[in-house]
Amino acid sequence: MELIWHGHSTWRVTVGETELLIDPFFDNPKTDLEPSDVDEPDYVLLTHGHADHIAHAGAFDGATLVATPELVSYCEAEFGYDDAVGGMGMNLGGTVECGDAYVTMTRADHTNGIMTENDSSAGMPAGFVISDAHPTDADAESTAVYNAGDTSLMSEMRDVVGEYLEPDAAIVPIGDHFTMGPRQAAIAVDWLDVDHAFPQHYDTFPPIEQDPEEFADEVDATGSDATVHALAADEPFSLE
């Protein structure tokens, strides 16, 4: 499995021959890429409907869109997704097969209004566990990464995601103000009992400026054995 962070909460995850792009938003200071510089993925996964997570979803309208049914419907109407491809609406707790990947939608504690002149709800905000095996078939040979989306610390990370979905790695927001900050994100990493942790959703706007080294120190302070990787944007990372 390969991970590429494109800044903010935008990730490209490769599982086998399948390319998944999460929350495309390239107007952030970590990347110099434009959406047109990025190859069309097979799937676009959206955690929720805020502008800094769906801003460039329309640039990849040949991909299959994976999100809550409400958000899929909004994006199909707003961005003109290819009718021949369409969207894959799913909901919390469900698992869908996306090429060589299995995607399980998890809860996130956040808001999810789409702030337009006709304010609407995009359903529940979400996170995703992406794996090369179905959760019921996962074993020591399989690999899974949990993207928590925009969220606060919640006991579901310990009681459901870590306990039953057993990710090897966690991508967690550390920016504070709108999501968890470094301390709460570190507790999440400890609860999830993962081997690798990746910070996201930081340094994009003044309210969420953070030093990822502080996050790494907080992870160490919990007693977690997870290795923190504060990735440079647009550089691939191989997750074994």
Explain what the structure shows:
With 240 residues, this protein is an alpha/beta fold. It has a single domain, classed as Metallo-beta-lactamase, Chain A. Helix content is 20%, strand content 27%. It is built from five helices and 16 strands. The protein has helices at 51-54, 69-79, 156-165, 182-192, 212-222, and strands at residues 2-5, 11-15, 18-22, 43-45, 64-67, 87-89, 95-98, 101-107, 113-114, 120-121, 126-131, 144-147, 169-173, 196-200, 227-228, 236-238. The termini are close together.
Key attributes of the depicted protein:
240 residues, alpha/beta, Metallo-beta-lactamase, Chain A, 7-stranded mixed beta sheet, 20% helix, 27% strand, globular, UPF0173, hydrolase activity, Metallo-B-lactamas
CATH class categorisation: Alpha Beta
Helix/strand order, N-terminal first = EEEEHEHEEEEEEEHEHEHEE
Strand numbers in spatial order across the main sheet: 6-5-4-3-2-1-16
The fourth-level CATH homologous superfamily is Ribonuclease Z/Hydroxyacylglutathione hydrolase-like
Number of separate structural domains? 1
User: Count of DSSP helices?
Assistant: 5
Span between termini: 7 Å
Rg measurement, Å: 16 Å
Question: Mind telling me which CATH architecture this is?
Answer: 4-Layer Sandwich
Number of strands: 16
Shape: globular
The biggest sheet amounts to: 7 strands, mixed
Strand proportion, as a percent range, falls in 25-35%
Q: If you consult CATH, what is the topology?
A: Metallo-beta-lactamase, Chain A
